[in-house]
Amino acid sequence: MDERVGRSGLTDRLIVRPEVGALLGAVVVFVFFTVVTEQFATIGGVATWLDDSATLGIVAVAVALLMIGGEFDLSAGVMTASTALVTATLSTHYGWNVWAAVVVSLLFALGVGALNGWLVMRTGLPSFIVTLGSFLALQGLNLGITRAITGTVQVSGMRSTDGYAGAGYLFASTFTIGGVEFQISILWWVVVIAAAAWLLVRTRFGNWIFAVGGSAPSARAVGVPLVRTKILLFMGTATAAWLVGTINILRFTTVQANQGIGLEFQYIIAAVIGGCLLTGGFGSAIGAALGALIFGMARQGIVYAQWNNDWFQLFLGVMLLAAVLVNNGLRKRAERVRR
Amino acid sequence: MSPLIEVVDIGKTYGSVIALRDVSTVVNAGEVTCVLGDNGAGKSTLIKILAGVHQHDRGEFRVEGEPVRFSSPREALDHGIATVYQDLAVVPLMSVWRNFFLGSEPTKGFGPVRWLDRKTGRTTTRKALADMGIDLRDVEQPVGTLSGGERQCVAIARAVHFGAKVLILDEPTAALGVKQAGVVLRYVAQARDRGLGVVLITHNPHHAYPVADRFLLLKRGAPLGQYEKSEIDINELTRQMAGGAELEALEHELRAQA
Ligand SMILES: Nc1ncnc2c1ncn2[C@@H]1O[C@H](COP(=O)(O)OP(=O)(O)OP(=O)(O)O)[C@@H](O)[C@H]1O
Ligand SMILES: [Mg+2]
């Protein structure tokens, strides 16, 4: 029997980990911008691109779990605006305490997430279509309700609301390292990554995520609660979007009703760069976080290099294609399917 | 003692398609009931009812004497009925031990905070597989890297390990070579000898005959006949399956061509 063991060396083990490609990519991007720009690798530079990566990465990690579970959520981007609008409208326009508004906003997000999941499971339609619907619906609601209530397309004035100081401390304060202020969003990101990574590979629920994405009928046949697992994953992306929406509204104190559009694809791109398969069943939370890191580093690096932002789009496109190709190769090695 | 499973005049329609009608059979502990029939005969439909994937709309389905109607595979599992499907026995990208424990993962932790007990998972899987004579080099490898026969064996070992009383196998040997089919049939026999009731579905009377105690023949959703092993020999079984007279005609035809 021993002749079969030969090939499973360390490299084989490493190469089937979904985040390896993203890690290499992150190192390359980091080294590149460190060399071509002055500020990129300074503490101030790091604080800037980490913050950018964090607000993207918080949702990207949740989206990665959902994608591993075999579904998409196109409403996650506008959801960051919807939740911010709920919080801002309740506290500035109706005079609610910020904490209460934040809690109601979370309930709203959980409700929409559950509705997304329930609709997908109930109709059997691709989640791409169902959440495209909720994406459009939320976008319409964001604008329509904001205009109806405020007469404008933005809500502002958070700073003078009840409970702003405390909530702001939790979601939008800064901490200082080496004389430079870092946004607390970075800590939130770290917490989300740690929780998601642990959930995914160390818990029963994580096992179910891989199973429902890898083969839903097989999972159901051995008693995995398919519907519950998927609905919870949709609620997870909505919650992550709520966290980012809350961070944003408390930091900037103003929210535009048309904010957040386009972010949904950035989340998916970060997850794919991080090794998630579009077909589900394979990927990692840490990979998605690395994907978001590459995103943030490249976006800020291009600013530091004083290049036109058009180059960022080109970079993204190339990155995405490269990632998909690498992932496919890795998956084939991981599977080496024999029929 | 009542049989583990008993179905009486059971029927199922998908919209206007009558997939199954008036089928009756029993499954006893320590016996193999074999369901034979052509493509589209209703074999998978029958076992999907037993497994809780679909519900019957006519007749009665009893488990240990109690009439039941399962609304999910989980419910069937809770009654001790485990199913190994044609192609979806396992999740290919997941490791062997994660597949083995899927849906019944061992956990440890404090109070409500629980996490996977990966060590127990791995050692138990290795041991359970070894008990059934399956020797795997690495329980961390993705199941997709196993051969078809090995995958079926993992699924069977899983069902046996989790205390199934009834094991249902939908064409476990369909995609396998002669030798691998033999290996799988040996595990089927082993499960039977441990006292499980087995429902085996196959196209192939040569796979069915050595292990089965009872044969249920289906044709276009209806029962064609039911025989105890003592009532029928393999030639007659083959003849019945191919539709008796039709086969004789075919034989003539082939002989004429030769
Ligand atoms: N979900 C479904 N919806 C509609 N018709 C179905 C469905 N499942 C099965 N059928 C029909 O019911 C009949 C019996 O199908 P079934 O899958 O039980 O056959 P089978 O004996 O398992 O065939 P095979 O040997 O090819 O696996 C077929 O005519 C099939 O087309
Ligand atoms: Mg079938």
Automatic annotation (TrEMBL), chain A:
Alphabetical keyword list: Cell inner membrane, Cell membrane, Membrane, Sugar transport, Transmembrane, Transmembrane helix, Transport
Membrane topology: Multi-pass membrane protein
InterPro entries: ABC_transp_permease
GO molecular function: transmembrane transporter activity
Domain of life: Bacteria
Chief localisation class: membrane
GO CC annotation: plasma membrane
Keyword presence, ATP-binding: no
Function: Part of the binding-protein-dependent transport system for D-xylose. Probably responsible for the translocation of the substrate across the membrane.
Protein name: Xylose transport system permease protein XylH
Organism in which the protein naturally occurs: Labedaea rhizosphaerae
Lineage of the species this protein comes from: Bacteria, Bacillati, Actinomycetota, Actinomycetes, Pseudonocardiales
TrEMBL record, chain B:
Molecular function, one GO term: ATP hydrolysis activity
Superkingdom: Bacteria
Keywords: ATP-binding, Nucleotide-binding
InterPro entries: AAA+_ATPase, ABC_carbohydrate_import_ATPase, ABC_transporter-like_ATP-bd, ABC_transporter-like_CS, P-loop_NTPase
One Pfam family named in its UniProt record: ABC_tran
Name of the protein this chain belongs to: Monosaccharide ABC transporter ATP-binding protein (CUT2 family)
Native organism: Labedaea rhizosphaerae
Domain ABC transporter: 5-245
Segments passing through the bilayer: none
